[in-house]
Every structure is written in structure tokens, then in C-alpha cells.
Design brief:
Keywords: DNA damage, DNA repair, Methyltransferase, Transferase. The structure is a single chain. By secondary structure, the protein is of the alpha+beta class. The protein has two domains: about 70 residues, Double Stranded RNA Binding Domain, CATH 3.30.160; about 90 residues, Winged helix-like DNA-binding domain superfamily/Winged helix DNA-binding domain (Arc Repressor Mutant, subunit A), CATH 1.10.10. It contains eight helices and four strands. A four-stranded mixed sheet has the order 3-2-1-4. β2 and β3 form a beta hairpin.
């Protein structure tokens, strides 16, 4: 075990193992990965990686929030403090993304608009989602392409589908029915 200031924990979830990294109670990375917390750690900036990784077993608040979310408190993840790098525009997009409630899906253009950007900034919204380091706490799974379907998701469409279904998003039910009909 490496002693470091960035602590890691992995929780088993119905969507797969969820690795989380935090420093002083603030979540820096989270994602569904079978490769463990090292995969998430590798995605951090060189400055953060220099702090080292500690596999401590229990992050406290973030772990409780995940358990509560899985038990049906769909707003539990919203209270966990998060921090990730990005330009001022990306920060506005991530803040707007964090305000999309569970059970609601929006388009990339709508995310841009909610961040105070023109709807034509949908590509920037897509980029912010693709580079999001803190899923599902920063819920990029709630953004769907306006052309239909689930779109991409760093951790795979089955994980995105599971999250949306767990949250009761009507779009997930419609999309699943369409896919099953094919």
C-alpha cells in the first residue's frame, strides 16, 4: 500500500465496482471500473498523482452517499463535495450538470443552455461529459443525444442504462423498449 493524501475505496454496486478517490473529504474521481482505483488515479493531474494513493477502505461520506443512493435516496450523491479541473466554461457546464435531478434527462444543447452558453455549445457540453472524472456524482449519465439513443458513456452503455433505470428516468424506459423491439 502506498501512503498518500488521496484515499481510495471501491464499492460493489449493481452497475459494477465503483472506485472513488478523495482528499480531505472532497471527491476527486469516481467511476465504474474493474481495474480498481488505480485506473481512476491515472486519470488525475500529475500534481494530484504526486500526492500518492492510499487504499484505506472507507471514505466515509461518499461511501454512505453511494449506499443511500443504491437504497433509493436518489439525491444522496448531490451532497458530496467534488472537485475537478477545468476551464471556467467547463466548470459552468459541470455545475449545471450537477443540478440535473435524478430521473431527469436533458440533451447536450440543453446542458449548454443551463450553463449560460448558447445551445450551439452542445459540443463543449459533450466534451465536459466525456472528460468528467466524478461519475455518477457529477451525473453525465443524465445527458442524452437529441438524435435519440443513450449516446456514449465512458463506463459503457449498460452502466448508463442501469443508472437511468434506477433513477426512474422515463427516457430510459422508452429507450430500453425501443432497443428490445429491434
Amino acid at each position: 500500500m502506498t501512503l498518500g493524501t488521496i484515499e481510495a475505496q471501491v464499492l460493489d454496486t449493481p452497475a459494477g465496482p465503483l472506485a472513488m478517490l478523495a482528499r480531505r473529504g472532497v471527491l476527486l474521481a469516481a467511476g465504474f471500473t474493474t481495474a480498481g482505483p488505480e485506473e481512476m488515479f491515472a486519470r488525475l493531474s500529475p500534481e494530484l498523482r504526486a500526492e500518492g494513493l492510499a487504499l484505506n477502505g472507507d471514505l466515509g461520506g461518499p461511501a454512505r452517499a453511494v449506499r443511500d443512493y443504491l437504497d433509493g435516496d436518489l439525491a444522496a450523491l448531490d451532497a458530496v463535495p467534488v472537485e475537478q479541473p477545468g476551464t471556467p466554461t467547463r466548470q459552468r457546464l459541470l455545475t449545471a450538470l450537477r443540478q440535473v435531478p435524478a430521473g431527469v434527462t436533458i440533451s447536450y444543447a440543453e446542458l449548454a443552455e443551463r450553463a449560460g452558453l448558447p445551445r450551439t455549445a452542445a459540443r463543449a457540453a459533450g466534451s465536459a461529459c466525456a472528460q468528467n472524472l466524478i461519475a455518477p456524482f457529477v451525473p453525465c449519465h443524465r445527458v442524452l443525444p437529441s438524435t435519440g439513443g443513450f449516446g456514449g458513456y465512458y463506463y459503457g452503455t449498460p452502466v448508463k442504462r442501469w443508472l437511468l433505470t434506477h433513477e426512474g428516468a422515463p427516457a430510459a424506459e422508452r429507450l430500453r423498449s425501443r432497443e428490445e423491439a429491434r
